[in-house]
Amino acid sequence: MSANVGIEVLGLKEALKELNRIDPKLRREITRDFKQIVKPVITKAEALLPSGAPLSGMARSWKGKSGADIMSWMDNRVKKNLKPFTSGKQVRDSFSGYRQNLGVFGVRWAGPQATIFDMAAEGQLSENLTAKYGQPSRVIYRAYNSAYQDVNRQVTELVNKVMKQTNNAMRI
Amino acid sequence: MSVVLNIVSAFDEKGIKKAQKAFSQLETTTQKASYALKQYGGPAAIAAIGAITAGLTKAVKAAAEDQKSQEQLKIALENTVGANKLQVAAVEDSVTALMYQTATADDALRPALSKLIRATNDVTQAPVSYTHLTLPTNREV
């Protein structure tokens, strides 16, 4: 489940790829810079997380047909799965016709617990979650909204920096 | 399963490239125009193009009539009072002013004025007679 909330840039993925080829150190610096920029969002999101299972039943172990663990809620694991990403992956079509890997800079919260807690909108479970934690999105978009102006401004500067570095290198 | 928030995403130019490719494959300008209209306007837009064409034909016809009436007025002025270019231009200006004042089309005003100039042999007398005699008739029509 993904959504684009900020800026769309043409050729940024290619620029990052090029930067990685020219100066891998600088490329890693970009990742570090972005982590720093979205730190307020991550901090806010972590603050919005409940301590302990959001609903009592979510502390239990739920397993899917494959036997994979869907739930139980463990604070450390859920918190660890919330992190910023910088992606140079090539954009491609998914089997269902959607475009994949469009994100370049963003925040990902991995795990079924995250998706259920953040976005569940139908059924008894979601009603109980809404009663306790409000409408979806309950964490990640809310955290972004609290700091989006600063984040967008700084990210734009970062994107300009990447583009400038790549252009300079190409001029050489 | 994960929730992803893309703060900066790659601009997806797939749709644009697809449209460009389809567009470049079309051979003639007309085909290109109708392709664009089908994509973005549908049958209504094609009907509108028909209306525009009809409108343009009318406009061209009107312009030709306007030109003809200007020529006739110019000839009448030159033949009757020996008007020069500047005088013809001044009469044209007065026709334009009269058109706005009376909300009467200039190509309806010019033939009437030509007739009056021929009858009176006087450029100053003709417009006066014109306003008194012709315009009420035009309004009644």
**Helix fraction bin of chain A:** 40-55%
- SS strand fraction of chain A: 15-25%
Taking pLDDT < 50 over at least 5 consecutive residues as the criterion, the unreliable ranges of chain A are none
Supply the number of structural domains of chain A: 1
Supply Rg of chain A: 19 Å
Number of domains of chain B: 1
Mean pLDDT of chain A equals 88
Q: How many helix segments of chain B?
A: 6
Radius of gyration of chain B: 28 Å
Helix content of chain B: over 70%
Order of helices and strands of chain A: EHHHEEHEEEEHHH
Number of helices of chain A: 7
Number of strands of chain A: 7
Model description:
The complex is a heterodimer of chains A (172) and B (141). Chain A has helices at 12-22, 24-37, 39-48, 75-80, 112-119, 123-133, 140-171; strands at residues 2-9, 62-63, 69-71, 82-86, 92-93, 99-100, 103-110. Chain A has 172 residues and is α+β, with helices and mostly antiparallel strands. In chain A, the strands form 3 sheets. Chain A has a two-stranded antiparallel sheet with strand order 2-3. Chain A has a two-stranded antiparallel sheet with strand order 4-7. The radius of gyration of chain A is 19 Å and the shape is elongated. The N and C termini of chain A lie far apart (41 Å). The model of chain A has no long low-confidence stretch (mean pLDDT 88). Chain B has one domain. Chain B is 80% helix and 6% strand. Chain B contains 6 helices and 1 strand; from the N terminus they run βαααααα. Chain B has helices at residues 14-25, 29-40, 42-81, 85-102, 106-120, 125-140; one strand at 2-10. The longest helix of chain B is centred in the middle third of the chain and has 40 residues, at 42-81. At the A-B interface, β1, β7, α5 and α7 of A face β1 of B.
